[in-house]
Amino acid sequence: MIEQTVDIATDAGEMETFICRPERGGPFPAVLLLMDAPGIREELRDMARRLGTVGYYTLLPNLYYRAGRDTIYGASVLNKDSAERERMRAVRTKMTIPPVMDDVAAMLAFADRQSEVKRGPVGCHGYCMSGPFALAAAARYPERIAAAASFYGTWLVSDAEESPHLSLGKVKGELYIACAEHDELAPLPMVERLGMLFRDAGTTGEIEFYPGVHHGFAFPQRWCYDKPAAERHWERLISLYRRRLG
User: Fold this and answer.
1) Nearest to 93 by CA among 129, 61, 59
2) What's the confidence (pLDDT) of residue 159?
């Protein structure tokens, strides 16, 4: 495996990005892995590595870069009312879809300049807060992003002007949306409404309900990690990318 960390230039500054790709056999399709709220950590780098081992040039950006380079948080970020969690939330609550779409554009432009990246369709998936970002990216860049996935994405249907459910009809690629049974950030009524909107828009893809699991089930270091569900999420994601990216 080849790993590196680079700064990708954006209109807002330099976005630190972890990149992982196979050592042999390129060029490779590009995949954007968008972080959850606790931010960049080794757990996410390991997930990028897993995608690298199956043939993808994977980019994992620190989406909090606008708030500075100290936006890497300790393990206590997962603890309610901890100082690290409050420090993270001060940044997280300012995150909106439009600037992240600019970041996606910068990553696409960066990938286009890399000889190790195969020209053609790109994949994008996000966890937690970035579930909406991945779906929005598929709608904003329909000619580039051929596959997008959201895993326990938060508030995929909301009153926000940029709520991703409003642009489902613009998506030309395939979407996969995984929802946990126990998730106060994506309650069942929202999932049911999203399913109706998905069908009405004629969107290609699937919304899958994961019974018995909690928000965060795919992260090995989370209390709610569920190995069968996590492995299912990998099977669904890699199959999606195989179909759409090669």
Assistant:
1) 129
2) 86
